[in-house]
Write a structure and sequence with these properties.
Largest sheet: 8 strands, parallel
Strand content: 15-25%
Helix content: 40-55%
CATH topology of the largest domain: TIM Barrel
CATH class of the largest domain: Alpha Beta
CATH superfamily of the largest domain: Aldolase class I
Structural class: alpha/beta
Radius of gyration: 18 Å
Order of helices and strands: HEHEHEHEHEHEEHEHEHHEEHHHH
Number of helices: 14
Strand order of the largest sheet: 1-9-8-6-5-4-3-2
Number of domains: 2
Distance between the termini: 27 Å
Number of strands: 11
Shape: globular
Length: 312
């Protein structure tokens, strides 16, 4: 049996990324009901909001689902307490060291997955006792690794270094890419950008429309002096680009970024002043679909591509 399917007790080795402002309970439940693993993105939620989403997700699916928690979250203890109290079966951690919380979560029978962007952090996560690793290439949307290692390069490097189940992420929105990830050594895939443009995603319709309009070169990785982030080129990005041209330092960049930029763009639909986080693969996303259809398309394309390769 597939290692990821066995670990998470799911039908297909497809994990929906826990994306801020896009991954509410509706999307998580829809992906889980379709046979994948849905994740609620806690990074954009106050503790009481997260509890509400967890409880609604429980009512909407009997299948396993999880919560993604960025480890730099200011109310981390409260968030983790809620997850433990609500008996969420799986936690995906990112943007920080898993050392502190992995043991506590596992003591409460919660499986822990850590998202990494390098071999170094994959090894540290394995040492911390996580159950699986998500290795994410810099094609991915949102916050990203400073190393700029592509998925095609990262997956075999991490595979050679660890013994845990491995999930490939970054630039995966088709069954062909899913097959490529498994060919490189991954046991499953994590899909983000493709689920942003789904009916159930909580991202604003304006943002979804910008995603399906995107072409090659529409996204860029920027703000490395603060935290590297991949976003669509829009008027806000042009402000950032102008600052770079004028030699702005990190403090000036932080001042312009301010607070709530991702919420403004992705959740409220402000295409001028908002930050529109999405991966390079947006150039291949041409329509908004139900999450269940996205999962089914991935599996059908995977099987079709596998069959085509065997016939070569």
């Amino acid at each position: 049996m597939n290692k990821i399917c066995e670990l998470f007790e799911i039908k297909y080795p497809i994990v929906q990324a826990g994306m801020i402002w896009a991954s509410g309970w509706r999307l998580a439940a829809a992906v889980s009901n379709a046979g994948g693993l849905g994740l609620i993105g806690a990074g954009s939620m106050y503790p009481d909001v997260l509890r509400e989403h967890i409880q609604k997700c429980k009512k909407a699916t009997v299948k396993p689902f999880g919560v993604n928690v960025p480890l730099f979250y200011p109310q981390l203890e409260e968030i983790m307490s809620i997850i433990i109290e609500e008996k969420v079966p799986i936690v995906s951690t990112s943007a920080g060291s898993p050392k502190l919380w992995t043991a506590i979560l596992k003591e409460n029978n919660i499986k822990v997955v850590q998202v990494v962007s390098s071999v170094k952090f994959a090894l540290k996560s394995q040492e911390a006792g996580v159950d699986a690793i998500v290795a994410e290439g810099f094609e991915a949307g949102g916050h990203n690794g400073r190393e700029e290692t592509t998925t095609l390069t990262l997956i075999p490097m991490v595979k050679a270094a660890i013994s845990l189940p491995l999930i490939a992420a970054g630039g995966i929105a088709t069954g062909g890419a899913m097959l490529a990830g498994t060919a490189l050594g991954a046991d499953g895939v994590q899909v983000g950008s493709r689920f942003v443009a789904s009916d159930e995603a909580s991202s604003h319709p304006n943002f979804k429309n910008e995603v399906i309009k995107a072409v090659e070169g529409s996204t860029v990785l920027t703000l490395k002096e603060i935290t590297p982030v991949r976003m669509l080129k829009n008027p806000f990005f042009q402000k950032i680009a102008a600052l770079y041209e004028n030699g702005a330092d990190a403090e000036e960049l932080k001042s312009t970024l301010g607070r709530g930029r991702a919420k403004k763009g992705m959740f409220e639909g402000d295409l001028e002043e908002g930050e529109l986080e999405i991966g390079q693969i947006a150039g291949l996303i041409n329509e908004v679909l139900p999450a269940a259809q996205i999962v089914q398309n991935l599996i059908e394309e995977y099987n079709h591509t596998l069959k085509r390769i065997k016939e070569i």
